[in-house]
Amino acid sequence: MRWKKFVLLVTLLLLAEKGYGASFEPISFPSLVSSIRNLDSLEFCGEPVPLEIQEVRERLEKELLLSIWDRPQVILWLKRSRRYLPRIEKMLQQSKMPDDLKYVAIAESALRPHVGSIKGAIGFWQFMADTGRKYGLVINDYVDERRSFFASTRAAIRYLTDLHKLLESWTLAVAAYNMGEQGLQTEIMVQESRDYYRLYLPLETQRFIFRILSAKLILSDPAKYGFLLTDKDYYCTLSYDQINIDCLQEIPIRIIAQAAKADFKVIKDLNPELRGHYLTTGNHNILIPKGTLKGFHTRYMRLVKDYLEARKERIYVVRDGDNLSSIADQFDIPLEALIIWNRLELNHVIHPGDRLIIFPKQKNN
Predict the structure, then answer these.
(1) Of 25, 191, 204, 351, which residue is most buried, by most CB within 10 angstroms?
(2) Is the pLDDT of residue 1 over 80?
C-alpha cells in the first residue's frame, strides 16, 4: 500500500509542476494585482464611472477580482458570447440603445436560459413573472417565455427603455432593473441623490453595476486578463429555421422533433420556453435545426395523422379498483409515462369510466 501512495504522490507532484490542464491553457497568466492596475477611466452606456472616488474604485476592483478569479465561469461567458451577444447587439442597435446593455444579460444569467433566483426570477434576463407578463411575455404551465432568448430580449429592451425614460440615466435604469423602479425612486427621494455611486441601496444592487462593468472589461479585452481563446474555442452562433404551427389540439413535442429529423432534446434546447412534453392548442412559432425546413410540414401532417389514429386505438377505460399505479403495472409501462401521456398529476384521482391513453411499451432491438 505504501508504494501505491508513493506513486500517487509523485504523480500529483508532476502534475503540479507541469500545470494541470497545461495543454489547454497556459498556467502563467497576469497576476490579479496587475489586472486591476491602470483603470484610469471607464464608462457605462456613455456615463462616466467616478473612479477618482476611492470607494467606487474599491467596489469595481472587488467585482473584477472576483470575476477574474472564477476562471471557469469567465471562460463560459466568453464561449457563449458569440452564440448570443451579436444578436443582442443587433436588437439594441435597432432600438437605438447603448451597446453596453448587452452585459446586463451576462451579469443576470451568464447567458443561460433556465437559471432561476431564490426570489423567482427566471431566464436570460431574470424576469419576475409579473414584470415579464407586463412586458408581453407568456408565462403559464405550458410556456415560459422568460426562457426564450428572443422574446425575453425584446421584453428587456422595452423594460429598460421605460426605465430610462423614467429615470433619465442608464446607470439608474439598470439599477432599477435589478431592484425595482419604485424601490429605487423611494431611495432617491429619501436620500436626496440621483447618483447611483453615492446612493445606499440593497447590497445586491450596490454590486450590480460593478458586476456588469467587470464583464464589460473582461469581454472587451480577454487576453489582458489571461483568457486566450481561439476562434475554435467559441460556441457557434445560433443557427435555426423557424416554423409556424397551428395546433387544433395538444400535440407531443416529439412529433415536432420527428418532423424536423431531430432529437426531442434538440427541439427543447432550441425552444427552452416550452415546458413539458406537449404543444398546447393554438398557434406556435417554433425553432428547428437549420436545414430541416424543407419537407417539414408534409412530414408533420403525416405524423400528426398517425398519432391521432394511434390515440383512438390506445384508449383504456378505467374500471372499478383501478389506480394509476395498477394500470401502469398492468401494461408494464412506467407510471411517469402514463402521467405524461394523459397530462395528469401524480396524485390525480381517476374514476371508473375515465379514458386514458396508453401506448405499448417499445421492445428493445
Answers:
(1) 25
(2) no
